[in-house]
Write a structure and sequence with these properties.
This protein has a two-stranded antiparallel sheet with strand order 1-4. 65% of the residues lie in helices and 4% in strands. The two termini are 35 Å apart. The chain has a domain of 154 residues. α6 runs antiparallel to α9 and α9 crosses α10. It contains ten helices and four strands. It is mainly alpha-helical and 256 residues long.
């Protein structure tokens, strides 16, 4: 004779799994219109600036520290010459590359100002990017690291919230890498040097500013590569749609 309790359990489990699978999609609001606008404008600006920046770097692919640096000086880094399929324009033209670079540098800088002002007004920084002392505990960081290795990038209890690695990376980009790129770029402009001569002193000379500009740009490229990789791993359709509409669909296994 079968135990009715134990024979009912598989059916109950099957019903639970079926109900999770057939539940309607749960969507959470994740990105405000200001963030979405900044994201796409910035994506275009970064793409153009990287391509044109590589053309400019090809003109003299050597980096130095200090106020001076030329062909016969010791370079701390000799970069490779970048192929045309990675540069803007595809054929070597330094004048056009500089025009593209400076034009989109203005877009890049003013879009950051727009994001900062908007995020202060709508409290995006305080609400979504605020890092608390408890977030930096070793146990919390280790837990989030393990979750990333398991390709789980959000908290099922608060799927709209940023995890600690997202917060730290976005803070580093917004308040370190991008400002460094902007101000070192200004330091490389002779016109800005005339008006703000302290910029060169701040960065230790023109060649130091150029090196820091390259390092910050490389950091931004690395962030972009990691960001795109995680978007693909997390589900590109859902992630891209959320950056267009603002709403993100919670994965079925977390709809409980």
């Amino acid at each position: 004779m079968h135990d009715p309790i134990h024979t009912a359990l598989p059916e109950a489990d099957g019903l639970a799994a079926s109900s999770v699978a057939t539940d309607p999609p749960r969507r959470v609001f994740r990105h405000r219109i200001e963030t979405r606008l900044w994201h796409w404008v910035n994506a275009i600006a970064i793409f153009v600036m990287i391509g044109s920046g590589l053309t400019i770097l090809n003109a003299h692919p050597h980096l130095y520290w200090g106020p001076y640096g030329a062909n016969f000086d010791h370079a701390w880094l000799d970069t490779p010459r970048w192929p045309g399929y990675l540069t803007i324009p595809a054929s070597y033209n330094l004048a056009i590359a500089r025009r593209w670079h400076l034009t989109f540098a203005l877009v890049f800088a003013f879009s950051l100002v727009f994001l900062i002002v908007a995020s202060l007004l709508n409290r995006h920084f305080q609400r979504d990017l605020r890092v608390r002392a408890k977030d930096l505990r070793a146990g919390v960081l280790l837990h989030d690291f393990r979750e990333h290795l398991a390709l789980r990038f959000h908290d099922p209890k608060r799927p709209e919230a940023y995890n600690i690695f997202q917060k730290l990376s976005y803070i580093a980009v917004l308040f370190l890498l991008i400002p460094l790129m902007i101000f070192t770029g200004l330091a490389l402009s002779p016109g800005m040097d005339a008006g703000w001569p302290w910029l060169l002193d701040l960065f230790g000379g023109r060649q130091s500013a150029r090196s820091i500009h390259f390092i910050a740009a490389a950091g931004l490229v690395l962030f972009t590569i990691v960001h795109l990789t995680l978007v693909i791993l997390a589900g590109p359709l859902n992630e891209v749609r959320s950056m267009i509409t603002g709403r993100w669909t919670v994965p079925p296994e977390d709809r409980r």
